[in-house]
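Hi everyone,

Forwarding the result from last night's run.
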Amino acid sequence: MAILLIFLSGCDRGKKETSKFNLSEATISSVREAMSKGEINAQYLVEGYLKRIEAYDKQGPAINSIILVNPKAMERAIYLDSLYAEGIILGPLHGIPLIIKDNFDVKGLPTSNGTLALKDSYPPDDAYQIKKLIEAGAIVLAKSNLAEFAFSGAFTVSSVLPGYTRNPYDTRRTTAGSSGGTGASIAASFAVAGLGTDTGSSIRGPSSHQALVGIRSTVGLTSRDGIVPLALTNDVGGPMARTVEDVAIIFDVIAGYDSADQVTAKSIDVKEDSYQAFLGKDVSTKRVGIIRQLFPLEESDSSVHQLMLNAIADMSAIGVTMVDSVLIPDLDSLNESRARIRQLKRDYNGYLASLGDSSKYKTLQDIIDSKKFHPYLEKGLLDAQSDVDVPEEHPEWKKNQALRQELRDRILHVMDSLNLDALIYPSFTYPPRLIGDLNGPRGDTSGKLSPPTGFPAIAVPMGYSYDKYPAGFQLLGRPFSEGVLFQLASAFEKKTHHRRPPEGFPEL
């Protein structure tokens, strides 16, 4: 407490009152402004957010979202404040505390991937995205819980942290997965923003269940270096935050070419200079197609369905031309005809090799033999281990790639023929399920379009079903059209302001 009191007297600049800055729902812009006025500094933020984690993560509402707190977060804050006092600002995230999903390598902290076997696995360096965030002045405040191995988009449970991560809006309900720890912690204002990963739905699903904005980039625009893989054909890492602007600010920092992940070479000539530049731009010339085949009324919760209709109406009200009943021919068959080819063994073994001596486990088989993982994973791990060593040599690989290309071609043909800038559909057609309910309707649409094509998609809050449970829609764009997605999302957010904090997490 002494650090906080010393800081408050120092930054008060002669004022007699201490700072009234609220951490709940704070944004990067509001933090920057308060810092510029001398009302707060990085130490204030770290101290305050750590108190919120202590009060609400394992106690009180007990959302169980944090695996570990960075013991050097305050040291980093003091250093950044010393630079700030000298007029040195490292970048757009100077002094901003972030929560990182525990499948990103952060040097000095273990990266468990939610797995007990890797609880003490310390990577030799930072993941590329972490390195860029730190260069921009960010503070890694904590590592968040995830669905172990990032296996599940339905719930967030791991062997390294007992119990489920719980939805702050109703702690009886799921956060979705696998980035549910990041989603829950940012919804509860344990930090300004965070990072998640998305192989099938895992940024956009938790974002929609927790009234957040989250973006899955085009495959090739953001590096996966230093992220524990699940399937590198689909894996993407990216920001989750309470506002479109905060997501865009972080996206500007992390997007771009990384020599350690050659897929990002695709971004060299097409990456925008600034994604923030698209915020606030006029959308009256934009055309968005409505994919009703992903939310038929008879297969949707009525309250969520009505929120989707309201969102479409609000999009139209801000000047976007909404093109109704856009159909992607054979969508279900193109997805369902692909064989299950597990890439985990090859990709995971490659990651373990990158750790050198920092992990005593060298292969996926070593992890399986250790038995240090959640029992529900055993069949999936054994299946992955028994699959081919090289996924590209699987007899169905070429067929799968052809089906993926056919889906890309059909989506682009529809968008070209109707002159569409994006497609819109709900992230879920039902509210968050009760924890433990694995049979009730989930209605997850996130895996249908973006992951198999590699196209970008952004999740945006669209209100609350039954006035309780967060719901969100997605905008899917053409490859490398993230700027347009930010443009549309920010215009919608400005009109609707659906985001509201969960109850039970007051200022301390």
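Residues 287 and 420 are 5 Å apart (CA to CA).

Cheers,
N.
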